Amino acid sequence: MDQRNLTEFSEFLLLGFSSEPQVQPLLFGFFLSMYLITVFGNLLLILAVSSDSHLHTPMYFFLSHLSFVDICFTSTTIPKMLLSIQTQSKIIKYAGCISQMHFFLLFAGLDYYILIVMAYDRFLAICHPLHYTVNMNQQQCGLLVLVSWIMSVLHSFLQCSMVLRLSFCTDSEISHFFCEIKQMVRLACSDTFLNYMVMYFGAGLLGGFPLAGILYSYLKIISSICGISSAQGKYKAFSTCASHLSVVSLFYCTSLGVYLSSAATQSSHSSATASVMYTVVTPMLNPFMYSLRNKDIKRTLKDSLGRKL
């Protein structure tokens, strides 16, 4: 297609879930409630970890970072959607769309990498307990988080740079509640072959590599737990991994299901619905999964609430 025939768009339309007027208040209340629960739940978890010196360990250090990332992750999409519902305006500027995509990919990548770092932490604690304090010291923890940030930033910049090279024609409607990269690429009328290659490479780098690391860690962990003689020891070792394993299962099953689905599946509505699971539901459930099954965090929260009351 001749480049001169292309129309440059300065804005897009986020169609969201429904345009029915009677449904909008329900959607607004539903997502506002989940967003507030996510923010306050994760903030409470961060405060609990930071206020109790007994929780200043690598496991809780990574957990507090995961909570911070989850707050940022949901904040890249939900506030804009709530504003669109409240103002009845689905317009998002091109620059705003690219910015939203950048931060979404950044914090999604951090979620993946923090989860594999947490799996590595549990692997060392259970499989190599005698060397745990040496291998997982404060400097090592900081380095792992720093590498996670660097990898996520580079991936986000790469993906957004590939989208910036695209040209868009007459269709400016994004069948999603945020500027999802797959939907953006579908709207382009220039060649997108390289974009899809980079996009699926990134999905493999963020999804496949961390998932392989997590599976390897848990295979070793299960093998070590089976070697423990006492039933109480087995339960204690497994209980430290159960919450993390639940979060990993929920996050990976939904997010990889969206990005690695068959190219023949073109249902944008089902994709948007599945995206809610890993962009909203999982970050909201994380504090509950980790606090309800963790005696140390429950004790800290009870002590903190008791002092305030």
Provide a short characterization of the protein structure.
By secondary structure, this protein is mainly alpha-helical. 74% of the residues lie in helices and 3% in strands. The chain has a single domain, classed as Rhopdopsin 7-helix transmembrane proteins (Up-down Bundle).
Structure notes:
The chain is mainly α and 309 residues long. It has a single domain (9-308), classed as Rhopdopsin 7-helix transmembrane proteins (Up-down Bundle), CATH 1.20.1070.10. Helix content is 74%, strand content 3%. It has 11 helices and 3 strands. The protein has helices at 24-51, 58-75, 78-87, 94-127, 132-135, 138-164, 181-187, 193-226, 231-259, 268-292, 295-308, and strands at 11-14, 91-93, 173-174. The chain has a 3-stranded mixed sheet. The longest helix has 34 residues, at 94-127. The model is unreliable at 1-7 (pLDDT under 50).
Key features?
disordered N terminus; Rhopdopsin 7-helix transmembrane proteins; mainly alpha; 3% strand; 3 strands; 309 residues; 11 helices; 74% helix; three-stranded mixed β-sheet
Detail the topology: elements first, then pairings.
Blueprint: E1 11-14, H1 24-51, H2 58-75, H3 78-87, E2 91-93, H4 94-127, H5 132-135, H6 138-164, E3 173-174, H7 181-187, H8 193-226, H9 231-259, H10 268-292, H11 295-308
Parallel strand pairs: 1-3
Antiparallel strand pairs: 1-2
Helix pairs in contact: 1-2, 1-3, 1-10, 1-11, 2-4, 2-10, 4-6, 4-8, 4-9, 6-8, 8-9, 9-10
| Average pLDDT over all residues | 82
**Sheet bearing the most strands, described?**
3 strands, mixed
Total helices: the number is 11
Could you name the CATH topology?
Answer: Rhopdopsin 7-helix transmembrane proteins
